[in-house]
Design goal:
The protein contains 6 helices and no strands.
């Protein structure tokens, strides 16, 4: 006697494309920045003087991924609750986009161009736009504003780290005036 067993799996998966896109968008810049960072860790970053009380290198990827995902979710909530770009969410979402662009620019400035002081100015711009975005998001959807609190806290740590590295690693390049008679 032979037995025939037939198993049929029926699964319906529906995806909220705007939600998925909102969460993935901030991570795209993070992934791109990760390549720049990895290419400049050794020997440049490793040889910089850094404060002893800093997060370990391995922590940055998971922390930024979770932060990017949460602010992406916050942007979705504001988009949905605030009528998209045609409603009161328009200005907060534009500010959010500005914040993302500023955030994505930091890694090429710090790790790519190795401009520690310029990166410090940049991270202060990121923090200011993050605070403003979180406040504006809160006005539309309080949860969306609250989701910016870990981001702003982490930016505080990152700003302190950027400042400490810039302070402790002054540029070794100096410009000297040459005597024209020589």
């Amino acid at each position: 006697m032979k037995w025939k067993i037939t198993v049929v799996f029926s699964m319906s998966i529906s995806a909220n494309i705007p939600l998925v896109g909102a969460i993935l968008l901030p991570n795209l810049g993070g992934f791109a920045g990760g390549f720049i960072t990895r290419n400049n860790l050794r020997p440049w970053y490793e040889n910089l003087k850094k404060p002893d009380m800093r997060p370990p290198n391995w922590a940055f990827g998971p922390v930024w991924t979770s932060i990017y995902s949460s602010i992406g979710y916050a942007s979705y909530l504001v988009y949905k609750e605030g009528g998209g770009f045609g409603g009161p969410a328009k200005l907060p979402l534009i500010l959010y986009g500005t914040n993302l662009l500023a955030n994505w620019a930091w890694t090429p400035i710090f790790f790519g161009a190795k401009q520690l002081n310029l990166a410090l100015y940049e991270i202060n711009l990121i923090t200011a736009t993050a605070v403003a975005t979180g406040y504006m998001f809160y006005q539309i959807k309080p949860l969306a504003g609250y989701l910016f609190i870990p981001y702003v806290a982490w930016l505080g740590i990152a700003t302190w780290l950027n400042y400490s590295i810039a302070r402790d690693n002054p540029s070794s390049v100096t410009i000297t005036e040459l005597d024209k008679d020589e």
